[in-house]
Hints:
single chain; 338 residues; alpha/beta; six-stranded parallel β-sheet; four-stranded parallel β-sheet; 14 helices; 10 strands; globular
Amino acid sequence: xxxxxxxxxxxxxxKYARFLFYGPIFKKIEGLIIEILQTxxxxxxxxxxxxxxxxxxxxxxxxxxxxAHTRTSLLVNVQHGLMGLGIPSLLWxxxxxxxxxxxxSGYPIFGYGFGGGACDIHLVYGEKEVxxxxxxxxxxxxxxxxxxxHDLRQQYQKTVNNQAVDPGLVLVVLPACVPxxxxxCNLPELLNTISPVVQWVEENTECxxxxxxxxxxxxxxxxxxxxxxxxxxxxxxxxxxxxxxGLSRAAFVMGAQSTVLFDSLCLGKVPIEIRxxxxxxxxxxxxxxxxxxxxxxxxxxxxxxxxxxxxxxSILNKPELDWKHEIERFITQCPDTN
Length: 338
């Protein structure tokens, strides 16, 4: 229930006035954290793992400061989603508004961006994020993509045991296109922008195309919008509640500014970023690029080839850092962390 409510707020302009919506949820979280702290001895370090670097991290840090006293408490941010590798604009204004919000409600209303300081340790997708976090004076940042996507990989193994990968299936994942996101156009404009790529694939290859709406926009109006757009005649819409079914079946995944592209990389599929005037930012992990503003036919032939599939399948075999050992070592070296 709370998750659905938060999704309703975060994927709308309401997120800029969180203090009007989140009071009861913040209080519930504070109660849960107090309970956690009380069940552990004062000599035991408590490690909180978060999948968010925004206002929720600031909230939990505030609550810990109020109730942890001299206890060692660590916040570990486990990267969730693609992070902008830059410092937010008007940072001073966010801090000022948070001070006012804390004065009147006891809770913050804004975060300070990726590496904003609330978390002590960051487990991230790759080395580009690690390098960026060093510039923000984060104490420890570790690249741990296999850990972050552990549950996804387990779901994938269970699914592919019952449902084979279709070498001719392309999954197209759509962003939310809400105010405040990095997208420079709305959803109808985006659908129109990427339609030439989708149409070329449908007409010139034996591939089938499955389109998945963003989880924050799976309402009837959005489905109708896709069906009535230039994509409509060439695609099937993925109406499954869980992503894993369509993602497991697909050999290729297309999108713009989507975490699912990283998911596909972790599963050995081919991640394909569609660049346009709507979104023109390089993603911080290995992927293919199709730019709709230039001739893309030859590039698509290469990207959709078996050779490209084999290359990305080999990524699954790369070893990963012993992140648990690194965190334990950090705790012993920083006993005064609160």
